[in-house]
Structures are given as C-alpha cells and as structure tokens.
C-alpha cells in the first residue's frame, strides 16, 4: 500500500469511530475508497480530508467562511 493510502482501520482510528462506521460511509458513498488487488479498501488522505470538511460543514454550518 502506498504512503498516501490508508486502510479502514487507519481511518477508524483517526476519526475515532468503529471500522463498521467507516465501511458504512464507503457503502453509502459518503467516503470515496478504492480497492486494491486483494479486495481491501484504500482511502486517500485527500479523500478523507474532503469527507471531513463536508461533515464539518454539514454539522457546523455556522463555521463556514
């Protein structure tokens, strides 16, 4: 796995949620992920950053610039 890709476990740790939650975000299309040749999900740092920003705006609309 390349340096700029994270696993579901990595994302779950960073977001302080269960791995099932990350899988649900991916399944629902909220978090973009690709699969490697072994079928494991990979999430890029930029995709996670975009996801976090969208969630921040959704749940904290008064924080918008």
What does this protein structure show overall?
The protein has helices spanning 8-15, 19-27, 45-59; strands at residues 5-6, 34-35, 41-44. It has 65 residues and is α+β, with helices and mostly antiparallel strands. Helix 1 (8-15) crosses helix 2. The radius of gyration is 12 Å and the shape is globular.
Describe how the helices and strands are arranged.
Blueprint: E1 5-6, H1 8-15, H2 19-27, E2 34-35, E3 41-44, H3 45-59
Antiparallel strand pairs: 1-3, 2-3
Helix pairs in contact: 1-2
Task: Summarize this structure as a short list of keywords or feature phrases.
65 residues, alpha+beta, Multidrug-efflux Transporter Regulator, Chain: A, Domain 2, 3-stranded antiparallel beta sheet, 3 helices, 3 strands, globular
Tally of strands: 3
Total separate domains: 1
Helix/strand class: alpha+beta
Overall helicity:
40-55%
CATH top level class name: Mainly Alpha
Beta percentage is 5-15%
Mean pLDDT: 90
